[in-house]
Amino acid sequence: RKVLEKNDEIADEIRKELKSRKTFTLNLVSSPGSGKTTLLEQTISRLKPTHSISVIEGDVQTDIDAQRIDKLGVPVSQIVTNGSCHLEADMVRDAFEQLRHVSSQFLFIENVGNLVCTADFDLGEDLKVAVLSVTEGEEKPLKYPAMFRVAGVLIITKTDLVPYLGVSLETFRKNALTINPDLVVFEVSSKTGEGVDAWVSWLKQQVR
Amino acid sequence: RKVLEKNDEIADEIRKELKSRKTFTLNLVSSPGSGKTTLLEQTISRLKPTHSISVIEGDVQTDIDAQRIDKLGVPVSQIVTNGSCHLEADMVRDAFEQLRHVSSQFLFIENVGNLVCTADFDLGEDLKVAVLSVTEGEEKPLKYPAMFRVAGVLIITKTDLVPYLGVSLETFRKNALTINPDLVVFEVSSKTGEGVDAWVSWLKQQVR
Ligand SMILES: Nc1nc2c(ncn2[C@@H]2O[C@H](COP(=O)(O)OP(=O)(O)OP(=O)(O)O)[C@@H](O)[C@H]2O)c(=O)[nH]1
Ligand SMILES: Nc1nc2c(ncn2[C@@H]2O[C@H](COP(=O)(O)OP(=O)(O)OP(=O)(O)O)[C@@H](O)[C@H]2O)c(=O)[nH]1
Ligand SMILES: [Mg+2]
Ligand SMILES: [Mg+2]
Ligand SMILES: [Zn+2]
Ligand SMILES: [Zn+2]
Which of A66, A108, A124, A59 is nearest to A85 (CA)? Predict the structure, then answer.
C-alpha cells in the first residue's frame, strides 16, 4: 500500500508543524448529513470567545460548508476533492497554506461525508471524532466498525429526534463501545444545544 | 482505469444473463442509514404476492441486513466486503451463484452505504436507485452530484420526519432535478407507508 505510506509521511510532517504551533487538530468524520457542520457551528459559537479557531472543510463538490463557517468569522479553507470520497494528507497540507498566517488553538478538519475509507487516511490530526446521527440506525458501529475503532471520540447527534424514532441512545452507546471500549462518547442535539456544553468543556480541557 | 474496464466487462456479462432470465435488476445506493433495507422490507411485502423477488445485500461487516430480508421469505445472498466501501461486479457475480437456482422477476442489490464511489461501479443492473433521507439535508444532491447523475430513480425517504426538521421536500426535489432533470422522484415514508404504493406500482410497470 504505497499510497498510505506516502500519505502517512506527509501526515507526520503536518502533525509536527501543528504541534510546534500548539494547535489541537481534530478530524471530523461521518456519513453524509450526520450533522458535522451544524455541530461545528454550535461548537465554534461557544468556543470562539475564549479560543482561537480555524477550519478546513472537505467536500466532493461546492463550498457550501465553508460559506456556513465563514459566516461565523473564523478562518476557513475549502478543499473540493472533485470526486475523491475522502481527504488525504497532501490536500490538507495544501489547504493549510491558506491558514498559515493565523495561529489557532484549534483546527477542525471536516472530512468528506463517508463512513468507510475516511478511517484509513491520517491527516496529521491529534484525534478523529466520529459523528453518528440517531437517524442512521443503532447498528452502524457494528456494520461500519473501522471508523469507530480509529476514532477517539464519538458524538451521537440529533438527539432531539429520538422521540420520533424507535431507537435508544443506550443501544447506540453499547454498540459503539463493543467495537471500541475506549471511545469518549457525547450525546448532543445541535438544534436544541443539549449536550453541546459538555463537548465544548471537554475540548477546552485538551488545550490546558 | 484498468479496474473499471475489467469491472464493466463482468457487469456486461451479468446484465446479459439477467436479461435472458427476464430479471429486472436494481442497485440501491445511499448514505449509510438512509433507509434502504427498511424501504426494501416495505417494497417486498407489497410486491411478493404477485412477483418473484431475490435480493443481494452488500455490507462492510455483518449480515444484519440479510437476516432482515430473510425474515420476509425471499432468497437473499449477503456480500461482506471486509473493508471495501462499495460493491464491484465480481462480488455480485459470485453472490449470484447462490441465487442461480431461483428465477426472479426482480433482483434488488442493496449496495454498501456510501454516496460517492458506489456511483462509479456498474454491477450489471438495469437501474441505479438513489435513496436520500430527509434527515441528511436538502443540499446533498449538490454536494455529492455524481450519484444523482447516474441514478434513474431518486427515493426521498423518512418523510414522516419532515415536521420535526426545518427542511422542504420541494427543495430536495429541486436540487436533485438541477443535477439530473431526468430523475424519476418518489417521496416515501417506510414507517407510515406513505408514498410506497406509487413506487411499487412504478416497479410493476417495469416488468410488464
Ligand atoms: N433535528 C436536528 N437536525 C440536525 C441536527 N444537526 C444537523 N441537523 C440537520 O441535518 C442536516 C445535515 O446537517 P449538516 O450539518 O449539514 O451535516 P454534515 O454532516 O455537515 O453534512 P455533509 O458535510 O454534507 O456530510 C441539516 O438539515 C441539519 O439541519 C440536530 O442536532 N437536530
Ligand atoms: N422515521 C423513519 N425512520 C426510518 C424510515 N426508514 C428507515 N428508518 C430508520 O432509519 C434507520 C436506518 O434504516 P435502514 O433501513 O437500516 O437504513 P439502510 O440504508 O439500510 O442502512 P445501511 O444498510 O447500514 O446503509 C433505522 O433506525 C430505521 O428504523 C422512515 O421512513 N421513517
Ligand atoms: Mg458538512
Ligand atoms: Mg441496509
Ligand atoms: Zn475513499
Ligand atoms: Zn469505494
Answer: A59
CA-based max dimension of chain B: 48
For cell 442535539, what's the residue?
A: A189
Using left for φ > 0, alpha for ψ between -120 and 50, and beta otherwise, residue B121 falls in beta
B92-117: per-residue pLDDT in tens? 999 999 999 999 999 999 999 999 99
Domains along the sequence of chain A with CATH: 2-191 (3.40.50.300)
Question: Which of A121, A60, A56 has the alpha carbon at shortest distance from A94?
Answer: A56
DSSP string, A132-185: EEGGG-TTHHHHSHHHHHH-SEEEEE-GGGGGGTT--HHHHHHHHHHH-TT-EE
Q: What is the dihedral of CA B80, B39, A29, B88, to 10 degrees?
A: 40
pLDDT digits (tens, 9 = 90+) for A30-48: 999 999 999 999 999 999 9
CB contact under 8 A, A140 and B64: no
The Cα of B191 is separated from the nearest Cα of chain A by a number of Å equal to: 9
Whether the CB of B65 sits within 6 Å of ligand 2: yes
Q: Residue A92: name the closest of A54, A58, A129, A126 by CA.
A: A58
Kindly identify the ligand whose nearest atom is closest to the C-alpha of A113. Answer: 1
